[in-house]
Specification:
The complex is a heterodimer of chains A (163) and B (115). With 163 residues, chain A is of the alpha+beta class. Chain A is built from four helices and nine strands, in the order E-E-E-H-H-E-E-E-E-E-E-H-H. Chain A has a domain at 31-119: Alpha-D-Glucose-1,6-Bisphosphate, Chain A, domain 4 (2-Layer Sandwich). In chain A, strands 1-2-3-9-8-7-6-5-4 form a nine-stranded antiparallel β-sheet, covered by helices on one side. Chain A starts with a strand and ends with a helix. The relative contact order of chain A is 0.19. Chain B has a three-stranded antiparallel β-sheet with strand order 1-3-2. Classes of the chains: A alpha+beta (163), B alpha+beta (115). Chains A and B meet through strand 3, helix 1, strand 9, helix 3 and helix 4 of A and helix 1 and helix 5 of B.
Chain lengths: 163, 115
């Protein structure tokens, strides 16, 4: 188990609960209902999921076994992502598969859970489970030490200015 | 700070662009087993030298491989980060997820009071 707490007070926590998983915690200044809507209503999803790129939601069958397919259009190219929903518990939990067109059949399982905190904030926990040894090694080699930490630090700085 | 994020994002896009091609993924896989010259790669992937050089330069631009000229031979090996295909993908995935949550947070801030 490795924990990397970032910033003080910490708003992002990255850890590896097992050698094929990594877990990211975030706290949002919003009630859980609002976070859930942002995660599950296509017109809201389209406003943030693309990371600033134009997002086309080609498929969004939000139910167990349903397919989703989101496509980002940026000046650097077009990137499609897709998967199927394994489990949906309203306001609490979404489990789905996740694949990028560029790495076909390298499937991750993503679990998102939301928790309403007493102070009005919402805690989001994202867990990503990999399947191959090569992916696991990749995560250990590149993710924990190098760029990911730097980008979480940068992210934390950005978030602290958002207050 | 903004520049840093833009830079992260540009790196990520480069990695995506580099990995979105089957030949380039094959080149990384090949170099994972040891270094190779441009002409080795051209023979292995049945391409012209010019064609292979284009792919190599995209990978080099994304930091996924480096080249070195020894005599008349240009030799390629995995880049300083020694990211192989899966490593690069997982690395990109982690950055991407952090970026998405960043954008989710910004969205929630921006739409405060809309309820």
């Amino acid at each position: 188990m490795m924990n990397t707490a970032i910033g003080a007070p910490s708003r992002a926590l990255l850890s590896t609960p097992s050698d094929r998983e990594f877990r990211l915690e975030r706290f949002f200044h919003a009630k859980r209902e609002r976070v859930w809507k942002a995660l599950t209503e296509p017109e809201l999803l389209a406003q943030w999921w693309g990371r600033g790129n134009r997002l086309v939601i080609e498929r969004f069958e939000f139910e167990r076994g349903g397919h989703w397919r989101f496509v980002e259009h940026s000046e650097h190219g077009v990137h499609g992502f897709e998967g199927r929903y394994r489990e949906i518990v309203p306001l609490e939990r979404i489990v789905s598969s996740f694949e990028w067109d560029g790495m076909p059949a390298h499937v991750l399982i993503q679990t998102l859970t939301l928790e309403q905190l007493a102070d009005g904030r919402t805690k989001l926990v994202s867990t990503s489970l990999f399947h191959t040894v090569a992916e696991r090694d990749g995560m250990m080699k590149s993710g924990m030490e190098g760029g990911a930490n730097q980008s979480y630090e940068a992210l934390d700085r950005v978030l602290s200015t958002l207050g | 700070m903004l520049n840093y994020m833009v830079q992260c994002s540009a790196e990520l896009d480069n990695a995506f662009a580099a990995l979105s091609d089957q030949t380039r993924r094959g080149i990384l896989e090949q170099l994972g087993r040891g270094q190779a010259s441009i002409s080795d790669l051209a023979a292995r992937f049945e391409m012209t030298l010019t064609g292979i050089k284009k792919h190599v330069s995209v990978l080099e631009g994304a930091g996924l491989l480096t080249t070195e000229k020894v005599g008349r031979v240009r030799s390629c090996k995995l880049g300083p980060r020694r990211l192989q295909e899966e490593s690069a993908w997982i690395h990109a995935y982690q950055q991407m997820l952090a970026e998405r949550l960043d954008h989710l947070e910004a969205f929630l801030e921006r739409t405060k009071g809309d309820e």
